[in-house]
């Protein structure tokens, strides 16, 4: 055996010895998981992410000759029914209190979707992919799908002799603004330092690296055209009853992002792209930019005053979208605001809660940018291959318990992820945010130890009129009203066991004047059908 | 013939004398407990030897093991300041008390003479009791019991025999208290799957007040021969009881019921007045626990909930005036410690240590600098009781759980003598937040200078053990068991076992 081989053998033995020594560290295996099965009866929702846009002659599946006339609209939509299920398994390998590996996995399917598919051999047509059972499938006859997704893989550890914990890897991130800027899983590193009653978080997230999309002659060096997000947060527990915090988020996108796409009647006409770095076969549409920088500053507080729990934030966004090249505007500047105030109190047999959210909007539309001054709030979105998709969103607002009015990830936590206000800016791109006023009120009642119910009402307005507002088919002009609608919903849950709950949810949205006569049938304006959903849910969590 | 009769008579005379010879009482002096002194282990052995030597006389023979003995003597030596008291109790081998004597002195110099006097008193009483050859109480039972406990020592307390062989008979069960093979006193089935247990006042008939709490109910029992439900009160469905504690108040025992309502502590204080439970205060935003910190006097402690932290800041001694709580003397806790998972003990040098049950259910000992000194290899604690708090963090998107779970844990009790007691539940299904324990036990540890050393433990219960309480004054261990979990429409059921600890 040569000297090098001996060294390798010794090193291998040493490594194995180290592995064998691991049990001495009192290794802990920790499992958590959830399983949710939902049965839907709904007119707008789909088992995908998406926007409920009643003002548009839309592309809902019911819009086919088999089920509806060719001019079908959002009037008289067929009631759809489907089942979907989602399991999430979390496993933590805990070497000690100060060192652990956290992983999270997901398996989700819709009953009857696809099964037993396989990827095509080399040279197979791309269409074969669409029939393969893959992510979010495996619910058809004989199941057998490769559908395990990995949500989290990160290391969580404490730096010895310091008060700092580090979590590094693919993990969950959420802002201190109740999620209206970002609420997603991503690869990054977050440090949390506790000094007395003060907690400081510093984080870095790499959202995208365009080099993984740009191919062939367009290939890029790694790490040169990225979406990078920086996180600085500080929070002080002033007393047991008062927390105050400040946050700064840097959203720095060095990619030539296309803020394109379409939204119903407000279809965005593609402009000429100037970049050649995209990996997609087709040139992306929309407003193509050179780079985007958004600085988000926030102040938040959480206080208990008597029996009243108050929480809220104020936030400002300032930034620049470079090279927007629309209507002679080369760079557009962003000044946007948001605030929130929520209150809840134990009243009678339950909890009364109320909340208000405001995000600013602007009158710009992506295809015809009027001003270099943007004032619409920007919530982050997926933008793979430098194309801003609009959906799936990566922001949320869970306060208020809405089901259809806004994107609430407590209620919409399976494949079905539809809402009227899908993004916190109430637009589809950073340049066409309408902004939002959302007021909600609700009551959570515990009827018996096993039975609970909560009822909620929500009212939403667009903060600003822009091209996203539907056109009244009779007047041929946008409606004056910015009132999007009123959602009334109820949830009743029965705790069969501590971990197993059977729930029934129902929500109905009475659309507001914003959508009046938005649908043209035979040249006459008609109000679109009000969205509704009813869900029977079994949820198990451990 | 006469010669034959005389010969037989001569043979029988010694035989007739044998009972008189057998009337010499054989006594085994078991462990003497020592409280309030630094070198306890040494003192225990010394006192055992001294008492045994001084008991030895022409009427009493001090034997070397319980197996040879007619009576077993145990005792306690307590030092409070300069004054000491020493008591001794003699029991039959079957566990029946024969006599109890005591003596006290003003300084340590009087100890050895005092042991002599105690031996004289004890000898006199034993002499009386065994004057007829057997104690007046249950001679037959005693003779039967001589073999039984020794042949099958089914003590409910299991000692770490490999380290310290337990003298046989050290934990002999009083025969009259034994039920089935579990030993001690066992209540009948009590309606309601109680999570929590607290002791109230002693009753004049020798019984005690017992308070049990289910998720939404407080029940008041009087325990003597049996458990008698005296009064109960129900809380709102939106309120959940997570802790139940009793403390002497200005007008008798006060019952602190820590409730969670709408994510927040909204605790109440109750009192027994006559046969009724009367509410004294409510909506107090603190977690409460009444216990003997480091084996000291029982006091009331409180901790607040933070906005996003489950337990905020230090634990304080608390006093109440109406609904107002005054906090003083903060106790700083190490990492992972909270009001319900910690206690303190002192070593022989008077150094204070903090012991907690970690989130992974290990016992962890911290020094006064709050640095970890020792961690158990086995898990302890374990509770199915939890409360929930709204989760506004990143996890809710992944879990779909609007509320996160905060599990309570077994309380750690520390005796005046520095022993550390902790409960332990084992389960067939303990996975994440899904917990279903099936058996429990109470463990007793002593700090040996470097680690907590197991002194004894109880036999496993046949059911989940949600709570236990050690009544140090009576040397009794109260163990609450869930014999049937609550269901969709049923409240479930509990039972209470009381075991004598020696």
Describe the structure.
The complex is a heterodimer of chains A (542) and B (502). Chain A has 542 residues and is mostly beta strands. Chain A is built from 2 helices and 25 strands. Chain A has an 18-stranded antiparallel β-barrel. In chain A, a hairpin with a 4-residue loop joins strand 21 and strand 22. The relative contact order of chain A is 0.13. The model of chain A is unreliable at 1-5, 7-24 and 261-275 (pLDDT under 50). By secondary structure, chain B is mainly β. Chain B has helices at 2-22, 40-55, 111-129, 139-151, 395-399, and strands at residues 25-35, 60-62, 71-80, 83-92, 97-105, 157-159, 185-186, 190-191, 196-202, 208-214, 217-223, 227-234, 239-249, 252-261, 264-265, 267-273, 276-284, 287-292, 298-304, 312-321, 324-331, 342-346, 352-357, 362-366, 372-379, 386-390, 403-407, 412-414, 420-431, 434-447, 452-458, 464-471, 476-484, 493-500. In chain B, the strands form 8 sheets. A 5-stranded mixed beta sheet of chain B has the order 2-1-3-4-5.
User: What kind of sheet is the major sheet of chain B?
Assistant: 5 strands, mixed
Shape of chain B: globular
Radius of gyration of chain B: 26 Å
Q: What value does the average pLDDT of chain B take?
A: 82
Short overview:
By secondary structure, chain A is mostly beta strands. Helices cover 4% and strands 46% of the residues of chain A.
Tags for this entry?
heterodimer, A: 542 residues, mainly beta, two-stranded parallel sheet, 2 helices, globular, B: 502 residues, five-stranded antiparallel β-sheet, 15% helix, 49% strand
Topology record:
The complex is a heterodimer of chains A (542) and B (502).
Chain A: H1 3-21, E1 28-42, E2 49-51, E3 80-96, E4 99-110, H2 127-131, E5 148-158, E6 164-174, E7 183-195, E8 198-209, E9 226-239, E10 242-253, E11 258-259, E12 287-288, E13 291-305, E14 308-322, E15 332-347, E16 350-359, E17 373-374, E18 417-419, E19 436-446, E20 451-462, E21 483-495, E22 500-511, E23 519-521, E24 524-526, E25 532-541
Parallel strand pairs in A: 2-18, 15-17
Antiparallel strand pairs in A: 1-3, 1-25, 3-4, 4-5, 5-6, 6-7, 7-8, 8-9, 9-10, 10-13, 11-12, 13-14, 14-15, 15-16, 16-19, 19-20, 20-21, 21-22, 22-25, 23-24
Chain B: H1 2-22, E1 25-35, H2 40-55, E2 60-62, E3 71-80, E4 83-92, E5 97-105, H3 111-129, H4 139-151, E6 157-159, E7 185-186, E8 190-191, E9 196-202, E10 208-214, E11 217-223, E12 227-234, E13 239-249, E14 252-261, E15 264-265, E16 267-273, E17 276-284, E18 287-292, E19 298-304, E20 312-321, E21 324-331, E22 342-346, E23 352-357, E24 362-366, E25 372-379, E26 386-390, H5 395-399, E27 403-407, E28 412-414, E29 420-431, E30 434-447, E31 452-458, E32 464-471, E33 476-484, E34 493-500
Parallel strand pairs in B: 1-2, 1-3
Antiparallel strand pairs in B: 3-4, 4-5, 6-31, 7-34, 8-34, 9-10, 10-11, 11-12, 13-14, 14-15, 14-16, 16-17, 18-19, 19-20, 20-21, 22-23, 23-24, 24-25, 26-27, 28-29, 29-30, 30-31, 32-33, 33-34
Helix pairs in contact in B: 2-3
């Amino acid at each position: 055996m040569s000297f090098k081989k001996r060294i390798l053998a010794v090193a291998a033995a040493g490594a194995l010895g180290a592995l064998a020594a691991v049990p001495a560290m009192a290794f802990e295996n920790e499992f958590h998981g959830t399983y949710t099965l939902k049965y839907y009866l709904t007119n707008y929702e789909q088992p995908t992410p998406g926007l409920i846009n009643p003002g548009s002659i839309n592309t809902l599946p019911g819009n086919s000759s088999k089920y509806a006339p060719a001019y079908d609209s959002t009037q008289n939509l067929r009631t759809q029914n489907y089942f979907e299920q989602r399991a999430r398994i979390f496993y933590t390998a805990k070497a000690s209190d100060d060192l652990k590996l956290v992983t999270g996995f997901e398996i989700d399917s819709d009953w009857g979707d696809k099964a037993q598919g396989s990827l095509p051999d080399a040279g197979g047509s791309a269409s074969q992919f669409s029939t393969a059972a893959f992510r979010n499938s495996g619910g058809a006859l004989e199941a057998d799908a490769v559908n395990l997704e990995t949500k989290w893989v990160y290391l969580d550890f404490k730096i010895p002799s310091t008060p700092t914990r580090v979590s590094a890897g693919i993990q969950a991130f959420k802002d201190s603004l109740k999620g209206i800027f970002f609420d997603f899983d991503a690869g990054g590193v977050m440090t949390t330092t506790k000094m007395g009653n003060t907690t400081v978080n510093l984080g870095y997230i790499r959202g995208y690296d365009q080099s993984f999309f740009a191919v062939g002659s367009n290939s890029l060096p790694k790490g040169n055209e990225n979406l990078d997000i920086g996180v600085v947060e500080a929070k002080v527990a002033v007393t047991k009853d008062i927390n105050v915090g400040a946050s700064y988020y840097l959203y720095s996108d060095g990619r030539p992002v296309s803020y394109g796409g379409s939204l119903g009647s407000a279809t965005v006409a593609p402009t000429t792209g100037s970049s050649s770095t995209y990996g997609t076969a087709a040139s992306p549409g929309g407003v193509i930019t050179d780079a985007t920088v958004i600085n988000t500053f926030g102040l938040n507080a959480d206080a208990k005053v008597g029996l009243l729990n108050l929480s809220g934030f104020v936030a400002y966004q300032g930034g620049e979208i470079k090279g927007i090249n629309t209507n002679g505007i080369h760079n557009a500047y962003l000044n946007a605001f948001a605030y929130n105030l929520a209150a809840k109190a134990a009243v009678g047999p339950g909890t009364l809660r109320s909340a208000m959210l405001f995000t600013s909007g602007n009158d710009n539309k992506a295809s015809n940018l009027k001003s270099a001054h943007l004032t619409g709030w920007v919530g982050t979105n997926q933008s793979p291959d430098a194309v801003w998709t609009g959906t799936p969103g990566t922001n949320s607002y869970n306060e208020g318990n809405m089901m259809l009015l806004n994107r609430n990830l407590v209620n919409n936590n399976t494949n079905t992820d539809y809402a009227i206000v899908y993004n916190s800016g109430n637009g589809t791109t950073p340049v066409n945010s309408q902004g939002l006023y959302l007021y909600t009120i609700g009551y959570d009642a515990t009827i018996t130890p096993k039975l609970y119910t909560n009822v909620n009402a929500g009212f939403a307005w667009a903060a600003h009129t822009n091209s996203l507002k539907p056109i009244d088919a009779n007047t041929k002009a946008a409606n004056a009203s910015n009132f999007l609608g009123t959602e009334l919903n109820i949830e009743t849950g029965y705790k069969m066991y501590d971990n197993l709950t059977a729930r029934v949810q129902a929500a109905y949205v009475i659309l507001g004047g914003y959508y009046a006569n938005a649908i043209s049938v035979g040249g006459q304006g008609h109000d679109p059908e009000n969205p509704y959903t009813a869900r029977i849910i079994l949820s198990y969590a451990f | 013939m006469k010669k034959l009769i005389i010969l037989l008579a001569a043979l029988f005379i010694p035989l007739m004398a044998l009972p008189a010879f057998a009337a010499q009482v054989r006594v085994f002096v078991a462990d003497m407990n020592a409280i309030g002194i630094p070198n306890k282990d040494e003192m225990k052995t010394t006192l055992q030897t001294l008492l045994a030597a001084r008991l030895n006389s022409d009427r009493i023979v001090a034997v070397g093991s319980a197996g040879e003995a007619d009576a077993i003597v145990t005792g306690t030596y307590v030092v409070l300041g300069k004054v000491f008291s020493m008591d001794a109790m003699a029991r039959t081998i079957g566990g029946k008390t024969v006599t109890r004597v005591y003596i006290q002195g003003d300084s340590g110099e009087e100890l050895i003479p005092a042991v002599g006097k105690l031996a004289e008193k004890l000898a006199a009483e034993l002499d009386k009791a065994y004057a007829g050859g057997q104690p007046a109480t249950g001679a037959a039972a005693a003779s039967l019991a001589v073999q039984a406990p020794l042949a099958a020592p089914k003590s409910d307390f299991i000692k770490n025999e490999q380290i310290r062989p337990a003298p046989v008979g050290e934990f002999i069960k009083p025969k009259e208290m034994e039920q089935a093979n579990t030993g001690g006193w066992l209540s009948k089935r009590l309606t309601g799957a109680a999570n929590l247990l607290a002791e109230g006042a002693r009753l004049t008939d020798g019984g005690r007040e017992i308070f049990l709490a289910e998720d939404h109910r407080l029940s008041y029992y009087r325990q003597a021969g049996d458990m008698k439900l005296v009064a109960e009160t129900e809380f709102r469905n939106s309120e959940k009881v997570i802790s139940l504690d009793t403390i002497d108040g200005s007008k008798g025992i006060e019952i602190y019921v820590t409730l969670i309502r709408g994510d927040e502590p909204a605790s109440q204080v109750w009192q027994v007045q006559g046969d009724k439970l009367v509410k004294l205060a409510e909506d107090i935003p603190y977690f409460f626990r009444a216990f003997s910190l480091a084996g000291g006097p029982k006091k009331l402690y409180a901790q607040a909930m933070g906005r996003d932290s489950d337990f905020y800041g230090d634990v304080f001694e608390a006093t109440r005036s109406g609904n107002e709580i005054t906090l003083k003397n903060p106790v700083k806790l190490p990492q992972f410690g909270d009001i319900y998972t910690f206690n303190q003990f002192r070593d022989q040098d008077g150094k204070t240590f903090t012991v907690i049950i970690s989130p992974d259910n290990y016992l962890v000992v911290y020094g006064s600098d709050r640095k970890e000194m020792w961690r158990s290899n086995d898990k302890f604690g374990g509770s199915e009781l939890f409360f929930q708090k709204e989760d506004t963090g990143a996890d809710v998107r992944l879990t779909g759980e609007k509320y996160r779970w905060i599990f309570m844990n077994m309380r750690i009790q520390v005796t005046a003598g520095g022993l550390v007691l902790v409960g332990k539940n084992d389960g067939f299904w303990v996975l994440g937040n899904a917990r279903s324990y099936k058996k429990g036990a109470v463990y007793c540890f002593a700090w040996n200078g470097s680690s907590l050393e197991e002194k004894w433990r109880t036999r496993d219960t046949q059911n989940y053990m949600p709570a236990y309480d050690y009544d140090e004054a009576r040397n009794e261990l109260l163990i609450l068991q869930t014999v049937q979990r609550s269901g969709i429409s049923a409240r479930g059921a509990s039972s209470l076992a009381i075991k004598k600890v020696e």
